[in-house]
Amino acid sequence: MLSKVTMKTLPESFRPFDARMLSVGDGHWIYVEEVGTKGGRPIVFLHGGPGSGSQALHRTLFDPARDHVFLIDQRGAGRSHPYLSCKANTTADLIADLEMVREHFAIAKWMLVGGSWGSTLAIAYAERHPERVSSLVLRALFLGTDEEVRWAFVDGPRIFRPEMFEAFCNHLPPDERKDPLAAYVKRLTDPDRAIQAPSAHVWFAYERALSELAPKNTALPDNVPSDARLPPTSIIEAHYIKNSFFLEPGELLSNAHRLAGIPGTIIQGRYDLLCPPKNAYALAAAWPGARLEIIDHAGHSMTEPGVMDAMRRAIND
């Protein structure tokens, strides 16, 4: 979870100097804001989730006097429309949207910065369009595999947060608890809001707590009204999980050779339960020119101690 940074608490230099909605087809409009110095070093920030949306705090990773930063809310996320739409929402669609944004602003090459799912999308884009990427700064590396998803929501919590995993399972009917991941994905992708909404709130709280090394609140919500506003990420995440993130098995790691010649840094929390360090090590070994920095005493979230400072250093370098 991000700390509460808002437009009102940000210095003027970190506020957008322009923002617009771009039509990318298929009925989708994506929100794009520009921060920093127009004509400066071009950088695109890719939020996580999928579905979380860009936040005010993300702007503070950059140097507004030097950088021209594009923060994009991906399809169905944040301020993009329609909200939480999974129609025509695939990894290939998001890559095509990035290319549309790049061409719209006449950018030859740009730096990609992203964490968690944002790192996945950055790698997928860079492997598809290496000639368009000047460098990469990635956090909490996720390669988009079914194995990683099962670790994040089942195997890891079962080992390190068994009480939370038990509570997660207990929010399901007894006959669905044998395979809780499949059960939640089925519920989250069900068109019936009465089925979808309670699971969305439980999933969101569960993932939020797992993202922190020392979460302040590990309780999962009970009796969520079916008409309560759906939280970000849960619905779109389930859509992507159901479709294996629209990637072939092992695709990003097997194509890592395409990143040769692109400099990059991977920032990885030592105790990241959602995206453990072995994935970062695997990509660093397969990506010529990558630098891996492990942050001790940190979990998954960008606001874990030392993570944002490491990201800022990597971006500045």
TrEMBL record:
Q: What is this protein called?
A: Proline iminopeptidase
Active site per database record: 116, 272, 300
Q: Which InterPro entries match?
A: AB_hydrolase_1, AB_hydrolase_fold, Peptidase_S33, Pro_iminopeptidase
Which GO molecular function annotation, any one, does this entry have? aminopeptidase activity
Stated EC number for the protein is 3.4.11.5
Q: Which reaction does it catalyse?
A: Release of N-terminal proline from a peptide
Listed A to Z, the keywords are: Aminopeptidase, Cytoplasm, Hydrolase, Protease
Q: What is its main location?
A: cytoplasm
> An example of a Gene Ontology BP annotation on this entry?
proteolysis
What Gene3D superfamilies is this protein classified in? alpha/beta hydrolase (3.40.50.1820)
Q: Which domain of life is it from?
A: Bacteria
Which SUPFAM superfamilies does the record match to this protein?
alpha/beta-Hydrolases
